[in-house]
């Protein structure tokens, strides 16, 4: 595993969920039609990175779920019950 400083993280892109579908389709297409793989692409390295990403997705999702539950529990435990604050109606979604 790798630990990147915040500054370095900005230099790398992130694959959004909708783009993961595209990457999956491209991999499938390249596997079925190897003659179409662009010469600039190192297919072996791509396959290793793809497999590693797939292997990490489920544990990462599980850990994120646990972290969210811990944060929610911490929020409930630290709530000042005497002066409740009104909840916002805006729903904030987390992007991965």
Topology:
Layout: H1 6-9, H2 17-32, H3 43-77
How much strand? Answer: under 5%
Mean pLDDT: 85
Number of strands: 0
Spatial separation of the terminal alpha carbons: 18 Å
Low-confidence stretches: none
Rg: 20 Å
Helix content: 55-70%
Tell me the major beta sheet: none
* SSE order: HHH
Net shape: elongated
Total of DSSP H or I helical runs spanning 4+ residues: 3
Please describe what this structure looks like.
With 96 residues, the protein is mainly α. It has a domain at 16-63. Helix content is 57%, strand content 0%. 0% of the residues are buried. The mean pLDDT is 85.
Features:
single chain, 96 residues, mainly alpha, 57% helix, elongated
Brief overview:
With 96 residues, this protein is mainly alpha-helical. It is built from 3 helices and no strands.
């Amino acid at each position: 595993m790798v630990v990147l400083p915040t500054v370095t993280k900005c230099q790398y892109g992130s694959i959004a969920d909708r783009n993961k579908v595209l990457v999956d389709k491209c991999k499938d297409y390249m596997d079925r039609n190897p003659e179409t793989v662009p010469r600039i692409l190192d297919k072996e390295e791509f396959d290793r990175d793809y497999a590693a990403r797939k292997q990490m997705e489920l544990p990462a999702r599980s850990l994120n779920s646990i972290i969210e539950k811990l944060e929610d529990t911490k929020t409930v435990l630290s709530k000042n019950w005497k002066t409740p604050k009104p909840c916002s109606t805006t729903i904030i979604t987390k992007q991965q």
